[in-house]
Amino acid sequence: MAFVGKLAYLALFPGLLFIYMAGLAARGLLGGMSGVVTGGSPRGPALGLPGVLRLLTAECIPTGGSLSAVIWLAPPVMLFALSWVSCMLFGVVGGDLALLFSLLLLSSAAVILICFSSENPRVRQNGRSEAAALLGWAIPLALVIAGASLRTGEASVAGLIDWQVRNGGLLWSMEGGGALAVAGTAMMLAAALLCALLLMRLRPLGRGMFSEAPAGIAQDITGPPLALLRIAETASLAVAPLLLTALFLAGPASNWYEVAFWILKVLGLLLLLGIVDLVSARARSDRLLPWSLGVGGGLALAGLVLVWLGVS
Q: Which residues pair with 156 in a beta bridge?
């Protein structure tokens, strides 16, 4: 029964339903910021519940070839992986940091599979940029997670959060390495913010969460698979700030005032990422790897070295 109960949590709260609704709220906040600043309306394709429900009941037009199987498999895999990540961040299901990282990799790999399986050459050409984006966030984030684990001595998500509950957020606590480790943690947070931009598809590194790029990954998908892809894309807007809060800002808690403070921290990260997206409206994203691996990877590696020096 415990296993069945965990599956129910995974599917409902804080799993699929939660990350979708949280993603809608995040999208509304970010789109509203854009509307206020630019004087226009929120950007992007319709990702709301009515539109998704219409897609779920619509016909899925066959595309032929290998994509026929991929479009039914990849979006649910994406959504399931992100749901599992959210449940791990809330302690509903157990898991270590390596599993969390692997699930994020699985979610992004599903997008790459959609691109390379397409018979449309304009869609297939997005495969390289999606693969570059995966490398761009995966390598720095792996270093960030390694640094957080090294500093706290914890390998599990729950253990990392509990360590911060006892000693303070990783960003400001002097435990586990002193000032040198805190400086390294600040550098790792900067790298993690760049990773979040990629995971959330926000500018200057993102590939179009809020704008429908010509021949994007959804061009060959219709009906329920498209609905699930839209849900997964929306969920990524919530998963990234939740992950950063858990890694650096002590994560969720049980007391109501601590929960309220946690919500403020998540909103603060969303606002910060939204501001970066707005000020990067004219930035070019064709140099994704130099920025993500060069800057993000460099910051993450330097932060990891400082943390190692601090704890050794």
A: 96
